[in-house]
Design brief:
Layout (H helix, E strand, L loop, with lengths): L7 E4 L2 E4 H16 L8 E2 L2 E4 L2 E4 L1 H14 L6 H6 L1 H11 L6 H4 L9
Antiparallel strand pairs: 1-2, 3-4, 4-5
């Protein structure tokens, strides 16, 4: 059988075959796409990863902020994560909401009595 001839391309370092050039370009494009995939995705109080759902603190904090905003509170995700007292205030005021059961833990109103 006859081998397929690869097309030669002239570049700044000399002559390079076309399949090598395409392979290098594909590798560079794949390496550039990796940092964009690093965003944390939450489903309730659970973080979504490749093996399934894992309960993490950042997702619990996001859930607390999300529920508080649904009640009209002006609070950001970062504020709940950075200020533990804000988390306690929200959990004590809104802890009866079933969406906060896993996120508030010992800060809910049911644990005060």
């Amino acid at each position: 059988m006859q081998r397929a001839a690869s097309k030669r391309v002239l570049c700044w370092r000399g002559v390079v075959t076309l399949p090598v050039t395409v392979g290098v370009l594909a590798a560079l494009l794949m390496a550039g796409a990796a940092p964009a995939d690093a965003k944390i995705r939450c489903k309730g109080i659970f973080q979504v990863n490749k093996t399934g759902l894992v309960s993490t603190q950042i997702c619990r904090d996001r859930q607390i902020a999300r529920v508080a905003r649904s009640y009209g509170w002006r609070v950001s995700d970062a504020e709940v994560s950075d200020n533990p007292l804000k988390k306690v205030q929200i959990c004590q005021a809104l802890g009866g909401d079933t969406r906060l059961q896993g996120a508030c833990g010992a800060y809910g109103p049911q644990s005060l009595w």
